[in-house]
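Sorry to interrupt, but I need a hand with the structure work. Leave the record below and I will have a look:
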Amino acid sequence: MKRLIFRSLAFLFALVSANVFAEGELTIVSWGGSYAKASIDGIFKPFEEATGIKVNVEDYNGGLAQIRGQVESGNVHWDVVDVESQDDLIGCDEGLLEYLDDLELPDAPDGTSAEEDFFEDANSECGLGNIVWATVIAYNSSTYEEDPPSTMADFFDLEKYPGKRGMRRTPEVNFEFALMADGVPPEEVYDLLSTDEGIDRAFKKLDTIKDSIIFWETGAQPPQLLADKEVAITTAYNGRIFNAINTEKQPFVIVWDSHIRDYGQWVIVAGAPNLDNAKKFLQFAARSTSMAGVSNRISYGPLRHSAWGLVDKHVDTNIDMRPHMPTAPENSKNYLDNNAEWWAEHRDDLFERFGVWLSN
């Protein structure tokens, strides 16, 4: 069970004095593209300026394979990684990640303790809450000009909305999308997926569009697939589509119906070569101002209540960011919270079955 285990500080302290810099460096691994840029400008560069610690940034596509390989080989060169919530739970259970029980976190600007200020379940034994993000569906407005798709059921309706579909190459979120498209209420999805009948039903629904799916693996691919018109509609990370609309002026539309929310978390790789600097970074990233620094650049929400008061205009385009967040009231009419614990328990079996389905 995920739980908040961090002790909070009585006040927001400076990591180092203004003229005494720390030494060394730090390798942080994130998801590349517009999200990585938002993190670099919103957190990484301010951290470097505040501490003198050099941040080296690497990209990856998620999962634990690279972390597991480094830890098991004893050749760890990553320090901090931005992971999905189920990977935090699995990695912690397998001993791939450092425990954070001695990490002290800053209070909110008004003195509210970190424990009260963070969203429920944002933090875990090995993970520090970073962002709330969503997997949504999106389409190019020029493709469906009349009566455009507005529901998850429309995504699976090839007769009414013909064209290729983009989906991430994973059973995660795809099973949930399939069941919601088939009429299952969000609150019943994981109970149904816990049965053989539910898994079979999800596969059966995916079968209806299988021949029309182009699978993607990186967050940068869905907006590119839409721009190139390789797909008519795709699942995607909401922030990547927002960036394409807001910054690149692409004619894309986000459909929020049945979106799936998740938390991104900072973790420290077990045996990280720069452990002390990694902990200093997590303390810095936990600040409300740090979280807002990302959310004012890309539409992923902060995981501290106090940070929401700091979310305002996009730093470059001056657009109001709050209506574009997954948790905005207008976007919250019908959605599903990702059940990381469920996926941590069922992941291996379902990934194996999904792989067989892909090959058939």
